[in-house]
Amino acid sequence: MTTIRRFCCEDLLRFAPVNFDHLTETFNMSFYMSYLARWPDYFHVAEAPGNRIMGYIMGKVEGQGESWHGHVTAVTVACEYRRQQLAKKLMHLLEDISDKIDKAYFVDLFVRASNMPAIKMYEKLGYVVYRRVLRYYSGEEDGLDMRKALSRDVEKKSMIPLKRPITPDELEYD
Amino acid sequence: MTSKPGLAGGIPERRVRPIWDAVDSRQFKTALKLSTALLAKHPNSPYAIALKALILERTGRLDEALSVCLEAKELLHSSNLNMVQMDDLTLSTLQIVFQRLDRLDLATQCYEHACRKFPNNLELLMGLFNCYVREYSFVKQQQTAIKLYKIVAEERFLLWAICSIQLQVLCSSGGEKLLSLAEALLKKHIASHSLHEPEAVVMYISILEQQAKYEDALDILSGNLGSLIGIEVDRLRLQGRLLARACNYTAAAEIYQKVLQARPDDWGSFLNYLGCLLGTDFSWSTSGSSQLCSSDNVVFQGCKSTNLPLEVFDSRIESALSFVQKLQMEVHDGLARCPYLASIEIERQCRLRGKTDAKLLEALLNYFQRFGHLSCFASDLECFSSTLTQIERAEILGRFIEISESSKLSPLKKLGQAITIFKLDEVFGFLTVLPVEAFHLVLFLIFLVLLDIPPELVETSTKMVDVYCKNLVLSSDLDPQENMHGEELLQMASSALVMLYWRTRCYGYLLEALLVLEFGLNIRKYVWQYKLSLVHLYSYVNALPLAYEWYGTLDTKNILLETVSHHIMPQLFVSPLWSETSALLKDYLKFMDDYLREAADLTFLAYRHRNYSKVIEFVQFKERLEHSNQYLAARIEYWILQLKQETNTLEEAECILEKLYRGMQLLELSSDEKLNSLTFNEDLQLRPWWSPSSHVNYLSEPFDGVSACSRENLVPIAGDIGLPRFQASGLAILQYGHCRLFLTDNYRLWMESLAKYPARNRGSTSILDSLFQVQLGTRGRQEQLVGEYKHQACENGNIVRNVLARKSLVPRLIYLSIQSATTSLKETVEPNASEKDANSNGELRFLLEKYARSIGLSFDDAVKLIFEISKGQRSFKDFGTDMVVDCMNFAVFLNAWNLCSNHPLLLHQDGVNLISWNVVENLVNTCIAEQLICARRVLDGPGSNLPILVQLITEPFTWHALVIKSCLRSMLPLGKKKKKSGLSDHLNLRHLSLVSNSIDCLSNGIQKVHKWLEDQMNGSEDSRLDILLSEVKVMQSVTGPGSVLRILEECASSSHEELGERIYGALQLWSSTDVIRKLVNSQASLLLKFQDICGAKLKMLEVMKRSF
């Protein structure tokens, strides 16, 4: 029961039940609004009957040449609506836009190395751990850079895992 | 962005780079040194000067920064600079500094000047446009954009102009005629250049839609331009919406069908589809920016019944049904709920049309079979709850139970179904009517027999906890990050226990309600629903420090501060927890101020990235937050808190008042215009049912099914009026968009009983009739009801406005009162002073009148009221509790006004002596006495009048002490006794004794409270602990407080390793005694804080006393 539509500012006033989740970060306003201002097609929300917010995905598209890619900055679902594959739907939407509209080569995302449930879910969706980013989260926890190739990357080159971990300052994008 | 390569503001870039590097790495000393060197070489370069200003601003030397900036501005204006020196880099550097100094106007002037000088320079014009964006000057934005467009006919500049026009129409009182101008501009451009950006097309359609030119908009959408909208579903939804607005419902329904074929789970589109098919009245969002993200277009879920002839209605329903069945066949993933919920909605529509066959029940059963185990099942059905009679609800629940018992599902799914059934108990309102043991009202009994409802509420709560405990093993392998199975059960059990407390007043139930949640958090610490409930429960049982602690664990920040701080902020405002209040207020205000400062830059970002619909959205959103009622409240409370804290000396208070422009600032902030445009952004959905808004707490009222839902309690909370839906959590909530209206489900049951037993139908009021009509879905009555609710929403807004208006007066009243006290006792009168004093006195009187009005009284009536209370002819008890503090404030300021009024009130019989001092003293004595008589021990349960006592002492008593201090300062100008002439000696002596009495009176009053607090904390921690434990650990075989706790204890003591290391470990650590001990300590710490404040006040009064 999911009306998926573009996220808008007013949704920020109603997303508390989603963002109270301890793994969902509430960013500052300029963060959300920069995303809305720059990549509105990468920021979608799912609504249930009664206009309740079920979850949302925010992301962007960036990079040059063969590293032109979609990026999932956050995807989250309220606990009431979990175990219904909503995250999968939202991810597919972003992948679809990256693939068909922006012709990107791959989609990537970062996940806490300790967040096993999320890692498993991304793996099910076809993502692989491309590389480990040491102490990516607040200088403490490692992050995993996970990737999934899109149709433009025919040979799936973007998904070949790197052998050694990298440090955050080696990242191409923040 | 230099105009010439290699040059920055006319200076070689290599010379400038090191300065920027130093600034970026925050080495401001080095930066300043380099900048001085640069200035020595280029003394007349505006860029070099601007750089210096930037560094000065970063190091906090704001005045210097401003004067250096002004120097640069002067230079830009005066000399014949060439274009290289007046480039965008120079201007934007200056702009940054001016913006940080809050002088956007000066930055704009610089750009305006530069653009006059070099009118065809694109960079400069874009900079100027940006300046106007920052100032929200839509007209000037439009003019500048048009200039840009004339220089280069680029699509983006045209769209900048179009956005600026839209903003004039939507956000200021720009005429609608502007829309046709926008349309003409676009048409002309399209003819020669076409459009290339999807967002440009969206804007074009929006301009047409706002002018009701739907057909034109549809032509655009189906032409080449329409194909620019990349997401097909977005395009279709837009098309459906335009068709529906053009009243072409048949075509619209077809389009929504297409959407549903692509997205079978799109509930919003289904409602639009059905609405179009049945020709339901629509109310569409008309906001210009919302086409691609408007949430639900259909209001009230098509509840307004249709006017179609019956046979047409039937055939349309038929086609809807077959379409939905087709969708059901096509969807194979077993997860799409929409096609099945759609069947229920179709049947509901039939019922609204008067058809009462059993298909609705069938559809519901089918839905349960498929999705009954899902966590969201109950909330999916909430919208339909109102369609069902109570008998049907009971029947459905019974059938669900049967299905659940006979199905061969996995234990997980079975648990899910069990939870759903418990939830529906709540949604359907059975929890409110379940009898507490031995509490059987006749009416309830009749219902029980009729409906076959499970017997006892106590049992329900114990059963919920029991099911949770027994199913813990299902979660043994879960990652701690994951939600545990059955987590909702504890939340619901807690809610049922609160209901039990409300109905029985047994404190034990309330303690159990919080123990249950603590138990759950002990097992998994991330459950925010538990935490939020605990915030409210601990606040209610006078353990605010603990509530604050739990609130802290929610990690509320950024925009959540605006939407959820209402869970704790109002309690803090009336508490002695000053540092916590201050921290929260600072965080919140910083968030809002930062956002409002940067909002325009983000808008410009949307302009630059050609996301024009976001431009409009951002500006509207900024306006919404800027007018937030909480933002205004926080700004007022912040300063009142400062005044409360810094009143040891008069000078400290005066210093704060100076910062507030002698209190004028807050008056300006709460002008009528501002109060009338307040917005309500609080997310009230997450509040517990018993406290649906921060000024409503049902638990403080006696439980009475009927009176609890009296007309007065049908209070809409906030926000825009949309249309209603039912929600329930013990109480059914009628919701109009963001605005929630409450009525208990008992009420509905009662109404149904009235219908069934007309003989009982006595005293039914019109509102009762109205609600009954809602049950039956009668259109006319609903509309009438909507009108009433709108009226009540207005009234609620008025309450908020009144409180804000009243509070915003306080600092100015304090300031004028201090002045008044000073003037009245001055020995020498300065020349020209008397006119100024008379003005101040006049203003004080004017504000007192306003103050009186805000509590619903005329000035004369307010004076009469406090006089009568002081004489003992009336009591504070005759009024609401808030009135105590307001009346005290009024009396204090009235006395101050009286001191130097030419026509004083409250004179003694001798016509000379003022008795307003005595009035204040009598009121102080009366209110303290009244409050302490009815004050119950904090330990004995909720409902203490601690907040009132805190307010009295920290507000009116404190303001009165300031008035006294001001008198003392005038009487003893140097703080020493002086020889005075006979007349002033006489004056002083008379006043000294008045003042001295007043100090004694305040001192006595506070002393009594101090003593009361001391008595509260008598006895050891253990003895207090035992008292509370005895409330819950009653060893009874029958049900009652304690039975839920027994299950928890048993669960903890019988835990075994199969539960997994984490759960097992947590259960081993569980101790209900520890929880209660923390509660007791938290209560003590709250009392202690208040006692400290009282102590400090007493000390201050002692010092005052000793000064003469």
UniProtKB/TrEMBL annotation, chain A:
This is N-acetyltransferase domain-containing protein. CDD domains: NAT_SF (cd04301). Keywords: Acyltransferase, Transferase. Residues 2-151 form the N-acetyltransferase domain. GO terms for cellular component: NatB complex. Pfam families: Acetyltransf_1. The keyword Acyltransferase applies. It comes from Dendrobium nobile. GO terms for molecular function: protein-N-terminal amino-acid acetyltransferase activity. Belongs to the acetyltransferase family. ARD1 subfamily. The lineage of its organism: Eukaryota, Viridiplantae, Streptophyta, Embryophyta, Tracheophyta.
TrEMBL record, chain B:
Gene3D superfamilies: 1.25.40.1040. It comes from the Eukaryota. TPR repeats lie at residues 233-266. Keywords: TPR repeat, Transferase. One of its GO terms (cellular component) is NatB complex. GO terms for molecular function: transferase activity. Pfam families: NatB_MDM20, TPR_16. Belongs to the MDM20/NAA25 family. This is Peptide alpha-N-acetyltransferase.
